[in-house]
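Bench notes, afternoon.
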Amino acid sequence: MRVSDIAKHEIIGLSIEIVDSKNKSDVGIKGKVIDETKKTLIIEKMSGQKKTLFKNNITIQIIINKQKVRIKGTCLLGRPQDRIKT
């Protein structure tokens, strides 16, 4: 997986961290993406709790190939199956 194409790939199963959010209480949340809808990401936090986050409100950070990559949630908007086809 190339860093430049991460927004076009499946992100379910990846560990992420919320680095910016319109809801400041969401900043710092870390966990694994367990599901994704058109407008939301569902994260399983380290504590085992599930958290639903609106994509248009967040910026996430993913570590790929030892590089930290930041992605605005707006780049992930849309149905996951349509996004990964492009």
